[in-house]
Amino acid sequence: MIRTTGAVTALVAGLVTALAAPPPAVASPEPPARHAFPAEFPLPDGFLPEGIAIGDRPTAYFGSRADGDLYRVDLRTGRGEVFSQGPGTASVGLEVDRADRLFVAGGAAGDGRVVDARSGAVLASYRFAQDADTFVNDVVVTRDAAYFTDSRKALLYRLPLGRAGELPSEFDVVPLTGDFSLTPGVNNANGITTTPDGRALLVVQSNTGKLFRVNPDTGLAREVDLGGEVLTNGDGLLLDGRGLYVVQNRLNTVALFSLDRAGTAASLVTRVTDPRFDVPTTIARFGDRLYLPNARFTTEPTPTTPYNAVAIVKP
After folding, report:
1. Residue 213 pLDDT > 80
2. Which of 174, 143, 169 is nearest to 158 (CA)?
3. 260-302 pLDDT per residue, tens
4. Edge-to-edge order in the sheet of strand 111-116
5. Which of these, 14, 44, 136, 313, is most buried using a 10 Å CB contact count?
6. Residue 294 near residue 42, CB atoms below 8 Å
7. Which residues contact 262 (CB under 8 A, 6 or more apart)?
8. With DSSP H G I counted as helix, E B as strand and the rest as coil, what are the percentages for the chain, rounded to 5?
9. Which pLDDT tens digit goes with each residue over 144-163?
10. CB neighbours (10 Å) of residue 85?
11. Shortest CA distance to 192 belongs to which of 295, 89, 95?
């Protein structure tokens, strides 16, 4: 028999305890400041931002509600420039496609246009609505079409794209039917994106807080089961895999939902806010960050009112 002294026994017991214990938590190191993208950056004074779009490169595009100017920002530095002069009417929802074309919703002007995201040249313009009761609010580009919402009408405007992405000379009107019900005189259909399987569209209705799955060919809308959640002040939408981010503008909140592949049901994952939010409206992703412009709807706009965009880490 081998006998151990009390000191040896204590040493062995200590080693066993140390090996069995979980390793201490270690905070993730912060990246060197010279490599970090800015977490917020200014937009021009008096710009009145609303829409944001980000493609494959670290470049963000913003539209002005004041005069429709388009502003381009290098996310690595936060520096930007107006690269396309507006038509004097608003530019709101934006989407950039793989051909570096920026699709722009024209708000109360009832129109939309497509702009070269490099040169700023207008490639095509479309007058969707002929009356004053219109607000072309947001846009999503799929493989074969671009779809625009009109917050004052129960319909979508569709730009069918050619086999090689050619822009059409005419547009289609897709009436919203089924579960969708228009409330006159207020903003209804707002943000728009696709379902995870790409077969349908998702549209949030700001005034009711409902989310709809829409057949892109027929316009048949079915309410998405949100498990009892309500998307009050729902604005911009961002699909990230099966995660759906919904900006709730005047609530200064971003809600994250987990969707089924068909987009028929969703469950709330989390809601996040940030002290830098000042009525954010739309949302775009680059890397592990989400970028949002502060529209500041509750601040009286002047030519010198400051505006900015902020970034948060994806929840």
Report:
1. yes
2. 174
3. 999 999 999 999 999 999 999 999 999 999 999 999 999 999 9
4. 94-96, 101-105, 111-116, 122-127
5. 136
6. no
7. 195, 196, 197, 199, 200, 213
8. 5, 45, 50
9. 999 999 999 999 999 999 99
10. 12
11. 95
